[in-house]
Design brief:
The complex is a heterodimer of chains A (about 800) and B (about 60).
Chain A: H1 2-7, E1 22-24, E2 27-29, H2 32-43, H3 49-52, H4 73-79, E3 80-83, E4 87-93, H5 100-106, H6 109-112, E5 116-122, E6 127-133, H7 139-148, H8 170-193, H9 199-223, H10 225-236, H11 243-262, H12 270-287, E7 307-311, E8 317-321, E9 330-333, E10 343-347, E11 350-353, H13 355-358, E12 363-366, E13 371-372, E14 377-378, E15 383-387, H14 395-398, H15 416-442, H16 444-457, H17 461-480, E16 483-485, H18 488-494, E17 499-503, H19 504-508, E18 509-520, H20 525-536, H21 541-549, E19 560-564, E20 568-573, E21 576-581, E22 598-603, E23 606-617, H22 621-628, E24 633-637, H23 645-651, E25 657-659, H24 664-676, E26 681-685, H25 691-696, E27 699-704, E28 716-719, H26 726-759, H27 765-794
Parallel strand pairs in A: 17-24, 17-26, 24-25, 26-27, 27-28
Antiparallel strand pairs in A: 1-2, 3-4, 4-6, 5-6, 7-8, 7-9, 9-15, 10-13, 10-15, 11-12, 11-14, 16-28, 18-23, 19-20, 20-21, 21-22, 22-23
Helix pairs in contact in A: 8-9, 8-12, 9-11, 9-12, 10-11, 11-12, 11-16, 12-17, 12-27, 15-16, 16-26, 17-18, 17-26, 17-27, 26-27
Chain B: H1 3-27, H2 36-40, H3 43-50, H4 54-62
Classes of the chains: A alpha+beta (about 800), B mainly alpha (about 60).
Chain lengths: ~800, ~60
C-alpha cells in the first residue's frame, strides 16, 4: 500500500504526479524541472541526496533574467563578504533548506562545478557560504547553479549593507571564564573544607587562598560586569532592579573574601562567588535561545528586491539599485517581481498581488495610467511603470518612519523579577542594618561580619534564575508547537493582556482558500460545462479561483474565446455563447450596495446570475473567540470594507467589536488610544499593513502560513495551522507566571534559612558554598519540571 | 621547591591551555552553529559505502 502511494509521488519533490507524469530511470517525476534536477544529480554522482530523506527537493522555478543584476560590480561588492580578485566568498540565504539532504547537496556543490572550492551550510540560519573562483565563475552563475537545483537564494534589500556583521559572542566567553574559574577555585577550596588539621594545611593555606583570589579576578571584573552596569543604570534611573542586589552581593563577597585572606581571618567565599556568577550566566544563556532562522525585526527591507530593471530613454534596459531610483524613472517589472516604489502603470497587463502588504490574497488588476503602490507583486507578465516616489517615500515604507519603530518595548516594561526585587532589596537592607545595629551593642567584633554575611546570603541568585529558566523552557516548548516567541519578556507580557485585537483578512481568514456562492437562475449542464471550460482558458485571478471552486467537467474545445481586459471573458461553443465578467459587461446594471467581489454570468445574452466570493475563515475561529470572550475584550480591526460584517456577526460572539475600513495608521492609533485607557493589547495580524499595530501593541503576534517566508516585525510568529490554539498559549503563559511566583516563595524559604545563619553570625564559607548552589539548582529543577508539565498539557 | 607547588603549577597550566583552546574555538565560530555539524559528520561514510564510482570522479576533477 505504502509503496503504491509512493509511486504516485514525484521522486524529487514529493508532490503528487498529475497527468503528465515523466518517467526517467524507473522513477516518476511531476514535472520537467524535477526531472532535470535528478538528471544533474545522477550525472554528478550526487544521487545520495535522495538517500537521506524521501523526496527532499523543491521544484525549480523559472528564473531566467531574474538575477541579471548580479552582474553589476557595485551590487556584487555589497553582497560578497570576501574578495581578493580571484577568490570570492558569499553567504546566501536559502529559505528552502529544510533537511539533511539539503545540507548534503549544498555542501557538495564543488562536484557540480569545479570553480566552487567549498560551501558550508548553517542549518539554523538557513544560509550557505560559498567560496568560488571569481576569475572563472561569477556570482550570478553561482546563484543560477543553486537555483537550478531548487535552492533559489533570497536576496533582499536587507543584504545591502557593507561590512561583515559583528557576531556578539561575549556571553559564551563570560560563561567559559566563570566556569573555568569556578572549577579551579572549587578544587583549591576543598582542602580547607575537609579541615585536615596540622602542619600540611597550615603551610599551603596562604598559597591556595591567593590562587583563588587570582582566579576570581576575571570573574568579578569581566564575567560579572554586566550586572554592575545594569545595576548602575537602574540606580541612576531610580529603579531597584534585580541586578542591584546581585551586584551588591558580588561586590561584598569579593571585598570580604579579599579582606579575610589578607588578614588571615578565614578562607573567603571565592568558590561561592564564582559559582554564583556561573549559575547566573547559565540562566542568561538559557534565556538567550532564539530562533536564528526567524527574524522578528524585519521591516520592508527584508522583502524588497535589491535591484530592478530600468529602461533608459534610448530603450536600453539595465538593472539598477533600488536606492538609486528617482522620480520619473521608467522601470520594467518582470513576472513575479515586487514593485519597489510607488508609480504609474505605463503599459502591460498588471495583475498585482498585494498579499504581502494587506494579507489580501486576491489579485488586483490595473489598467494603464493606474497608480501602483510599492510592495505589490506583479503576477502576469511584464509591465512598465513610471516612478512617482523613491523607495523611502513610498506609501508603504513611510509607515516605518513612525516613532513606534524606534522605541524599545523591553525597556518600557517592568518585569516580574524587577517588581519583586524592589521590595526584596529594601527588606534585605533593613535586615542587614537591624542585625548590625544589634550586634554593635551585643558583640562589636561580629557586627561587620554579620552585615556582610546578610548581603552575601541574600544575594538573590535563585530569584534571578526563576524567570529565565521558566520562560526559556517555555520558549522551547512553544517553538516545538510552532508558536515562535521572540523572548521571555513577550511571554510575560502575553500573560498580562486583557484585550485581543485581530486583523481580518489573512488572520482569521485563510489566504489559501476562498469560497463562492451562486445566486440567480440555475445553470443547465451544458451551460455549466461551458462556464468551466471558458474559465479554464483565462488567467485572471478570479477565473482561477472560480475554476477551482466548480465541479469537474468534460474538457471541450471552444469555438470562440475572447478576453476583454478589465471587463470579462466571452466564449462560444456550438450554438451556446457565454459572457463572464463585471455586471456592466454582461449587460446588467451595477448594484452598488454589494460590497463583496462578484462575477456575473450571462448565456446567449440572457442574464443568469452571479457568483459572490467570500473569505473562508480559518478552522476553529468561532471556538477560539468563544473561549476568549469570557476573559478578554475582542476587537476585529479590518482594512477591508463592511462586506463581511453580517457573516462575522453570525460567526463570532456578540460582544466582539467589528471595525472596518482601517488604514495602517488608524490601526496603530486605535491601539494607542486604548492603551492610554489601560488596555493591555495583544494584536494578531499578518500583512505589512499591520506592522504599525503590531509594534504599538503590548504583544504583537504575526500569523504566517509559512514561517520561513515572511512576517512583519513582531513579538511572536504563530504558524497558521496552530491558530485555534492561541487561547491555550495565553493560558499557558499565565500558568508560567504562577510557576515563577511559586519559585519566588521557594527561594524566600532558602533565604530565611540562610539569613538565620547570617544574622546569628554563624555563616561559614562552607555553609554558603552548600546553600547557594543548592537553592539555585533546586529552583532550576523545579521550574524546568513544572514547565515541562505545562508543555505536556498543551500537546 | 615542594612537589605540591609543582603539581599545582602544572595542573593550572594544563587547565589554562584547555581554556585557551576553548577561547580559540569560540573565536573561530565553532559555537555559532550547533546543529549542522551533527548532521554533517554522518555523510561521508555513507557516500563511500554506496558510491564506489567516487574515486573515478575525483581523478576527473583533479585533472
Amino acid at each position: 500500500m505504502k509503496k503504491n502511494r509512493k509511486h504516485n509521488l514525484c521522486f524529487h519533490c514529493g508532490d503528487e504526479n498529475g497527468k503528465n507524469t515523466l518517467t526517467f530511470q524507473e522513477k516518476s517525476f511531476c514535472c520537467n524541472g524535477c526531472k532535470t534536477v535528478f538528471e544533474i544529480f545522477s550525472e554528478n554522482d550526487l544521487t545520495c541526496y535522495y538517500d537521506f530523506e524521501n523526496s527532499p527537493g523543491a521544484i525549480p522555478k523559472e528564473i531566467e533574467g531574474k538575477f541579471d543584476y548580479l552582474q553589476k560590480q557595485k551590487i556584487i561588492d555589497k553582497l560578497v563578504e570576501f574578495d581578493d580578485g580571484t577568490i570570492q566568498i558569499v553567504t546566501l540565504y536559502v529559505p528552502h533548506i529544510h533537511c539533511s539532504s539539503c545540507i548534503w547537496v549544498l555542501e557538495n556543490l564543488n562536484k557540480l562545478n569545479v570553480n566552487i572550492s567549498s560551501s558550508q551550510v548553517n542549518f539554523g540560519k538557513k544560509t550557505v557560504r560559498i567560496t568560488y573562483n571569481a576569475k572563472e565563475y561569477s556570482l550570478k552563475e553561482v546563484v543560477l547553479l543553486i537555483s537550478s537545483i531548487g535552492y533559489e537564494p533570497y536576496i533582499s534589500l536587507d543584504d545591502f549593507k557593507t561590512g561583515k556583521q559583528h557576531v556578539n559572542r561575549s556571553l559564551i566567553y563570560k560563561l567559559g571564564i566563570a566556569g573555568f574559574a569556578f572549577g579551579n577555585i572549587m578544587f583549591l577550596s576543598f582542602p580547607e573544607y575537609f579541615q585536615v588539621d596540622g602542619f600540611w594545611i597550615e603551610k599551603y593555606k596562604p598559597f591556595f587562598r591567593w590562587l583563588m583570589f587570582f582566579f576570581s579576578l576575571p570573574v568579578v571584573f569581566y564575567a560579572a560586569n554586566d550586572y554592575f552596569i545594569t545595576a548602575y543604570k537602574g540606580l541612576r534611573s531610580k529603579i531597584l532592579n534585580i541586578d542591584v542586589p546581585i551586584a551588591l552581593g558580588i561586590a561584598v563577597l569579593f571585598l570580604r573574601s579579599t579582606i579575610e585572606i589578607m588578614f588571615d581571618l578565614g578562607s573567603g567565599f571565592f568558590d561561592s562567588l564564582s559559582g554564583l556568577v556561573f549559575f547566573l550566566l547559565i540562566g542568561k544563556f538559557f534565556q538567550q535561545k532564539t530562533y536564528s532562522f526567524l527574524s522578528f525585526e524585519r521591516d520592508y527591507k527584508s522583502y524588497f528586491p535589491i535591484a530592478v530593471t530600468k529602461i533608459f530613454s534610448d530603450g536600453k534596459e539595465t538593472p539598477i539599485q533600488v536606492y538609486d531610483i528617482v522620480k520619473g524613472d521608467r522601470l520594467l517589472i518582470k513576472n513575479e517581481e515586487l514593485i519597489p516604489v510607488d508609480g504609474i502603470l505605463i503599459n502591460g497587463n498588471a495583475s498585482i498581488d498585494y498579499s504581502f502588504v494587506t494579507g489580501e490574497s486576491e489579485k488586483v488588476s490595473k489598467n494603464s495610467g493606474d497608480k501602483l503602490f510599492a510592495g505589490g507583486k506583479q503576477t502576469s507578465g511584464v509591465i512598465e511603470m513610471e516612478v512617482l516616489k523613491s523607495v523611502e517615500q513610498s506609501y508603504l515604507t513611510q509607515l516605518w518612519s513612525n516613532d513606534i519603530f524606534n522605541k524599545n518595548k523591553e525597556e518600557a516594561f517592568t518585569t516580574l523579577t524587577n517588581k519583586i526585587s524592589k521590595h526584596f532589596t529594601i527588606y534585605v537592607l533593613s535586615i542587614a542594618i537591624i542585625a548590625t545595629v544589634f550586634w554593635l551593642f551585643y558583640d562589636i567584633s561580629k557586627a561587620m561580619n554579620v552585615f556582610t554575611a546578610v548581603l552575601i546570603i541574600a544575594c538573590p541568585c535563585a530569584i534571578a534564575l526563576a524567570a529565565p529558566f521558566t520562560f526559556g523552557n517555555l520558549l522551547r516548548i512553544f517553538g516545538k508547537l510552532k508558536f515562535y516567541v521572540k523572548n521571555a519578556n513577550a511571554i510575560e507580557q502575553l500573560a498580562s493582556i486583557n484585550t485581543v485585537i485581530f486583523d481580518k483578512t489573512g488572520t482569521i481568514t485563510s489566504n489559501e482558500e476562498s469560497t463562492a456562492t451562486y445566486e440567480g437562475e440555475s445553470l443547465s449542464t451544458i451551460e455549466e460545462m461551458l462556464l468551466k471550460n471558458t474559465l479554464r482558458g483565462s488567467n485572471h485571478p478570479l477565473s482561477r479561483t472560480l475554476y477551482d471552486v466548480l465541479d469537474d467537467n468534460n474538457i471541450i474545445t471552444l469555438d470562440n474565446f475572447e478576453e476583454h481586459l478589465g471587463q470579462g471573458i466571452e466564449a462560444s461553443h456550438n450554438e451556446e455563447s457565454i459572457k463572464i465578467g463585471s455586471a456592466s459587461f454582461v449587460g446588467q446594471l451595477q448594484d452598488t450596495s454589494v460590497l463583496n467581489t462578484t462575477v456575473h454570468i450571462s448565456t446567449n445574452n440572457n442574464y443568469k446570475g452571479k457568483y459572490t466570493f467570500y473569505n473562508s475563515y480559518r478552522k476553529g475561529v468561532s471556538k477560539l473567540f468563544n473561549t476568549l470572550k469570557n476573559n478578554y475584550d475582542i476587537v476585529i480591526l479590518s482594512g477591508d470594507n463592511e462586506g463581511e460584517k453580517e457573516n462575522l456577526k453570525k460567526l463570532l460572539p456578540s460582544k466582539t467589536k467589528l471595525i472596518f475600513n482601517q488604514k495602517p495608521d488608524d490601526k496603530l492609533d486605535y491601539i494607542k488610544y486604548h492603551q492610554t485607557e489601560g488596555a493591555k493589547v495583544l494584536m494578531i495580524g499578518d500583512g505589512l499593513n499591520d506592522a504599525g499595530a503590531l509594534a504599538q501593541s503590548d504583544v504583537g503576534v504575526a500569523i504566517s502560513e509559512n514561517v520561513n517566508v515572511f512576517s512583519p516585525a513582531c513579538d511572536a510568529i504563530l504558524d497558521a495551522t496552530k491558530f485555534n490554539q492561541l487561547g491555550n498559549y495565553i493560558n499557558t503563559s499565565k500558568s508560567a507566571v504562577k510557576i515563577i511566583n511559586w519559585s519566588f516563595v521557594l527561594s524566600f524559604a532558602y533565604n530565611i534559612i540562610g539569613l538565620y545563619f547570617a544574622v546569628t553570625g554563624q555563616l561559614s564559607p562552607i555553609v554558603a558554598a552548600i546553600l547557594m548552589p543548592l537553592s539555585s539548582i533546586s529552583i532550576v529543577v523545579f521550574t524546568t519540571l513544572a514547565t515541562n508539565f505545562l508543555g505536556r498539557k498543551l500537546e | 621547591m615542594s612537589v605540591i607547588y609543582m603539581m599545582l603549577i602544572i595542573s593550572i597550566i594544563i587547565a589554562i591551555v584547555f581554556f585557551i583552546v576553548f577561547i580559540i574555538a569560540v573565536r573561530n565560530g565553532q559555537y555559532d552553529d550547533s546543529y549542522t555539524p551533527s548532521v554533517r559528520m554522518l555523510f561521508e561514510d555513507e557516500l563511500v559505502k554506496e558510491k564506489p564510482k567516487k574515486t573515478k570522479l575525483i581523478t576527473k576533477n583533479n585533472k
